[in-house]
């Protein structure tokens, strides 16, 4: 419905004024339609731009996800690296200690070897045959061996030139042999 005021204005106009007013109004309607078309086209462009932005946003989200996964991988590698570096430090410390222990052992081994060589020299000189030592007594290293040889030679015999064993004691302190030649 048309308002009474508008109705009165339209009826008061003459035919020429009414044509001019209608032409002006038709031109205004045309401008209104053109504006609507442009805005609709712009809305279509905005919709396309929105779709482009959504696609770009999706690509960026995928890139962020890839980078986050890569970061997680790097963090895991960093943890492994830190653990390996700690283990390496511990192994180097243990190796240094083992090297020092080895040098200490070598030094003590050298000293012990020197002592053993001195003792071996003493034993060899003690075991060296005496000038008047019979061949049957050479190479005997213990008192027990000597007693066995004496017994095998007849240590209990009372014949002249034979030895009689009287006492053998003190295995820890060395055998003290008291023998006397029977003539």
Structure, briefly:
The chain is mainly α and about 180 residues long. It has helices spanning about 5-10, 15-125, 145-150; strands at about 160-165, 180.
Commentary on this structure:
This protein is mostly helical and 183 residues long. It has two domains: 21-128; 132-183, no CATH class. It is rod-shaped and about 175 Å long. It starts with a helix and ends with a strand. It has a two-stranded antiparallel sheet. It contains three helices and two strands, in the order H-H-H-E-E. It is 72% helix and 6% strand.
Strand content: 5-15%
- Total of helices: 3
Average of pLDDT: 81
Numbering strands along the chain, what is their spatial order in the largest sheet? 1-2
Total discrete domains: 2
Strand segment count: 2
Give the overall silhouette. rod-shaped
Please report the distance between the alpha carbons of the first and last residues. 174 Å
- The arrangement of helices and strands along the chain is HHHEE
Helix content range of the residues, please?
Answer: over 70%
Q: Give the helix/strand class.
A: mainly alpha
Biggest β-sheet: count, sense, barrel?
2 strands, antiparallel
Report the uncertain regions. Answer: 165-183
Radius of gyration: 62 Å
Give the topology.
Elements lengths: L3 H9 L2 H113 L15 H10 L9 E6 L10 E5 L1
